[in-house]
Amino acid sequence: xxxxxxxxLVKKFKDFTAVDGLDLEIQKGELFGFLGPNGAGxxxxxxxxxxxxxxxxxxxxxxxxxxxxxxARVRERIGVVPQQFSLFEELTPVQNLWYIGKLNGMPDAxxxxxxxxxxxxxxxxxxxxxxxxxxxxxxxQRLSVxxxxxxxPEILFMDEPTTGLDPQSRIALRELTNELNQNGITVVYxxxxxxxxxxLCDRIAIMDHGIIIAEGTSEQLKHKVSKDQLIEVEVMxxxxxxxxxxxxxxxxxxxxxDGNLLLLNTSKTENAFFKLADFFKKQDREVxxxxxxxxxxxxxxxxxxxxxxxDESG
Length: 314
Description:
The chain is of the alpha/beta class. It folds into 2 domains: 2-219, P-loop containing nucleotide triphosphate hydrolases (Rossmann fold); 223-313, Alpha-Beta Plaits (2-Layer Sandwich). The protein has 12 helices and 14 strands.
């Protein structure tokens, strides 16, 4: 059962197309990830699906309701955790959640019970009466999660929630996200962190320039490059001229260089190690190591877009 569906979804800002004809299906109970660099269209897509931004053309349904014509029904069924803390820093967690509960028309007793329950879930109950302005980034994001869950939504949208957090807070928020999903909440999660998407998401859509360029499970996406072979060669004093020379070898399809490390995308061939070792010997280059590398989501992204995600996500 699809809980989110889009057909030909487009968002334009004057002459700039941020999202370009997006067709998407997300199943009920999934932890679905949008992966891509900043500017890929991930946040714009989320803003349309959560009724925060108008749709230029195409259609979208969330929890069975049309985003264009039934926005109030959509908002009743979703929670949103934005990238930046958007609650009131001068208020305590209890006060923030009370305010949000009243906006959602919840009865006082329900707000109180739900607030206590959620603050325990996000491990902020001991800080319930402390002004949230003094909280760490991780604590603020956990409070944002509690706010997004207050009215018991079917779907939780999380827009790059771990950006700027320290490693411990990132891990804690990922664990919380996974636990919420295991308890039946559909989670739509945007990130430009490859490792985060790999570990967390059931399925992933890689976006670039407003379109989905690949979609599937992490293993399915990696299979897109595993039909070839990735070989790392660590060479003393490697340079661009050496990389270009290696790329001319018959079984080498592409080469990228990071300092003295060459990453070769090769067709699977016999005796590749011996052929490479012989090549570098003839080039009078000292090789420290030649090794096969398992493909990663970043390898998929680079192969599909011909650019390094790290240069884009800054």
